[in-house]
Write a structure and sequence with these properties.
The structure is a homodimer. By secondary structure, the first copy, chain A, is an alpha/beta fold. Chain A folds into two domains: 7-231 and 441-489, Aldehyde Dehydrogenase, Chain A, domain 1 (3-Layer(aba) Sandwich), CATH 3.40.605; 236-416, Aldehyde Dehydrogenase, Chain A, domain 2 (3-Layer(aba) Sandwich). The first copy, chain A, contains 15 helices and 19 strands. Chain A has a seven-stranded mixed sheet with strand order 11-13-14-9-8-15-16, with helices on both faces. In chain A, strands 17-2-1-18-19 form a five-stranded mixed sheet, with no helix packed on it. A five-stranded parallel sheet of chain A has the order 5-4-3-6-7, sandwiched between helices. Chain A is globular, with a radius of gyration of 24 Å.
């Protein structure tokens, strides 16, 4: 529908973004926050028309899209507040000690923006992780211009959101080039964006293959740049014996809902359920099968994702000693995903790396362990994850310290007695995790700490007060928290 | 002198470090801090013997080595205090809101250690950036075991420091494997360490070639890991016209001392001095030549560094339109570096990338610009730097905003009216900078914020209070600063 932006156009856009960087990075926290809030207002103002376009393009139901837009607006507003609060600047001041030998100069440090950030829109979140989504909002808060490459699966939605952003740019008197919207279905567009000398960081949410490719291009540049790719996770759930004895059937119902939520198209979908092979697991499995049976089939985001789901699920089911255990009885229409639960043994799982891969969609693999010590052994075969979950009593937690320790090392968020789907947008959220969940476990993409991905520290030594950024000046006109001579103060 | 540690031994050591990680990462902040302080005590207790060994190996004068050990002890103690203060944990708490729809769970986040960290000892800092240096201290504070590869140029010093650390390990009842000392002059040792599956991060201070090689190995792993390599910087100094009119001669004297300090073997050595071609620059140059003339030659760290200095200096001097302008008149002994100042035009510099490279040693290249606008143009040809310096009056600063903006983007520390040599160990220090100064501009290697290189965030969702790490428990028994419901509290 939209032709790929040409390499020449990309070059012009990046030059404009670079120029905009000089101006935008000097906007005050207040001005940046007001700009972000103006984008939120425009998103709201895009009204039903925007929801209609998204429904046509994505197969996502209306309620979900309305919720997702509301979440996107919440993100913009709450990250704007965090931007203004300024904690992320990590302002540090060490005052001069002239009579020290040698004299200690006055040194002040704060975070400064990296430069233009390229954001790749996500297929599964047309609003919240696309054009005006979390990566864009946090990069703008940091003081970085943003270049968004629309996801081809919802290019019109992206185009409409871009219009809303560009209106906010104009109305807020922000520099031309602070936001750029680009189309591109080809490999070359992504490569040109990542390799461009003015690109200083990359945000991406999607497949392992896509994210790893961007990462490799970025690391092979003459000047390597950070890539924040959120890629693949099977979000293991550990069913501990005490809890299973108490609530096997309830857990099964809770998980049938979590596995099938949004046709399983969430990064935090519970793709692996690990239990002890005993009578309680049988109760769990029976309840799970019963809960899965009546689940409706759901239309997946686009044909590519549907085909992938069918193929990857088939691959898993074709492995030795893997059994298709429960399948929803719905008759699927075109591009509809059917909730499917497979089952295998821990032995088999540990010996077959294909079973460790994510099957993106409403699918989960149950693993039967002989005992808790095999469950612990199994953790050595798991890669980095966005989330891990324990269904456990306090007694279970007391008795399984080694398992807790092992699982902590694997994940970015550790849930007890809940489901991994449902990602709260708040400061304490870590949406990220060890590789291959993301390319950089030290940062996350949800919550205001995600701003920190796009900044670096700069020290100012011996600067006259009036030339310092406001946030570091003696009088603290921005009223932010700062660490002065090793002590936090406001 | 010491044979290379074999690949088999490295494998055993890494397995031990991995096991130690499970135990060490659970030590309280207080216990880690006490352990670090015990190392400091042992370093002091190593007494004159340690200084003697270092003098024999490094050619560094006694006073410098005593100072450097004192600095290393200060680092260990001050990073231990910072470890205990716990600001670096970035504890965030969002309390549950059960009546929200859907209910908001209790989520708590803090930094957790990455895992075993491999540290490569630096040639130019046998204490402060080697075995018990800044990388080791910050990794231990973070809760990571450390594997140090001794720099072959001071392997005996490193061995003696390792003994001191290992005594502290035993006396503090720290787990076996929390610290490992390894020798290796070969390429293969470094490669095996960086590529080992249990290595989770790498610290390095040294040449661009060395650091970039480690970075590439690390990024090409199946699971890429962060590499903090502090590599090369020419630390440009901009002489602005107002300041030059007022103090050309004083600046020259200040810089002759800075260029030759420590035989120029500091990462922050001012290797590039950029001025406007006018009468004040002539005064500056005359004074510089006069100040350089009587400077004694100094023995360099080791033959390799000396040979490199001679070769790289010769390369620069062999370029068209580069003139050797001032050379100290000392008669050098074996391996002694002679302070040398060369001069060229901005035009020539911009057209010849060889002139942009670091010449490690007591060398500086003066660049004559036609005017301020050529000085601004020149910044586009500079790569990332650890530091940049302005010699400037307030008037100069007012009149050169564009130049200030351009230079900010290049460096990690921006000094006004000072010299870049002399790196204060304090929280506000940024010792790092855009590539190729380091491989990751988002972090630095001096000051307690360097701890952040070796940690990642982990969210705890819906955990019973008593199972949470102390730092996240309701009662805040560690008494650290935490952000609770978006508000900083103690």
């Amino acid at each position: 529908m939209f032709p790929d932006t040409t390499i020449e156009q990309i070059d012009l856009s990046m030059a404009k973004a670079w120029k905009a960087f000089q101006l935008y990075s000097k906007k005050s926290l207040k001005e940046r926050a007001a700009f972000m809030k103006a984008i939120a207002v425009e998103l709201e103002a895009a009204g039903d028309e925007l929801i209609k376009i998204a429904m046509e393009e994505t197969n996502l139901p209306e309620a979900r899209l309305r919720n997702e837009r509301a979440r996107t607006i919440f993100q913009l507003n709450s990250y704007a507040d965090a931007c203004e609060r300024g904690d992320w600047l990590e302002a540090r001041i060490d005052e001069a000690i002239p009579d020290k030998n040698p004299p200690k100069p006055d040194i002040r440090k704060m975070m400064v923006p990296l430069g233009p950030v390229v954001v790749f829109g996500a297929a599964n979140f047309p609003f919240a992780y696309s054009t005006a989504g979390g990566d864009t909002a946090t990069a703008l808060a940091a003081g970085c211009p943003v270049i968004v490459k629309a996801h081809p699966a919802h290019a019109r939605t992206s185009e409409r959101v871009a219009q809303a952003i560009l209106k906010a740019v104009t109305d807020s008197y922000m520099p031309d080039g602070v936001f750029t919207h680009i189309h591109g279905a080809s490999f070359e567009t992504g490569k040109a964006l990542v390799e461009h000398k003015y690109t200083k960081a990359v945000g991406f949410t999607g497949s392992f293959t896509g994210g790893k490719q961007l990462f490799d291009w970025a690391q092979q540049r003459k000047e390597p740049i950070p890539v924040f790719a959120e890629m693949s996770s099977v979000n293991p759930v550990f069913l501990l014996p005490g809890k299973m004895k108490a609530a096997a059937s309830e857990i099964a119902k809770q998980y049938a809902a979590s596995i099938s939520l949004g046709v399983g198209q969430f990064c935090t979908n519970p793709g692996l359920i690990i239990g002890i092979d005993n009578d309680d697991l049988k109760v769990f499995l029976d309840s799970l099968a019963e809960a899965v049976k009546p689940l409706a089939a759901g239309t997946m985001l686009h044909t590519g994702i549907f085909k992938n789901y069918v193929e990857k699920r088939a691959n898993v089911l074709a492995q030795a000693d893997v059994e298709s255990f429960a399948v929803a009885e719905a008759s699927p229409q075109l591009n509809q995903g059917v909730t499917t639960i497979a089952i295998t043994t821990a032995d088999n799982f540990m010996g077959n790396p294909l079973l460790h891969q994510e099957v993106f969609g409403p699918f989960s693999l149950v693993i039967k362990c002989r005992d808790l010590s095999e469950m612990l052994e199994l953790t050595e075969y798991l890669e980095g994850q966005l989330t891990a979950t324990f269904m456990a009593t306090e007694e279970d937690l007391k008795n399984n310290e080694a398992l807790i320790d092992a699982v902590k090392m694997l994940c970015g968020r550790f849930i007890i007695n809940g489901v991994p789907t449902g990602v709260e947008v708040c400061l304490s959220m870590q949406h990220g995790g060890p590789f291959p969940a993301t390319t950089d476990s030290r940062f996350g993409s949800v919550g205001a700490d995600a701003i920190k991905r796009f900044v670096r520290p700069l020290s100012f030594q011996n600067w006259p007060d009036e030339f310092l950024p406001a946030e570091l000046q003696r009088a603290n006109p921005s009223g932010i928290w700062r660490t002065v001579n090793d002590e936090l103060r406001k």
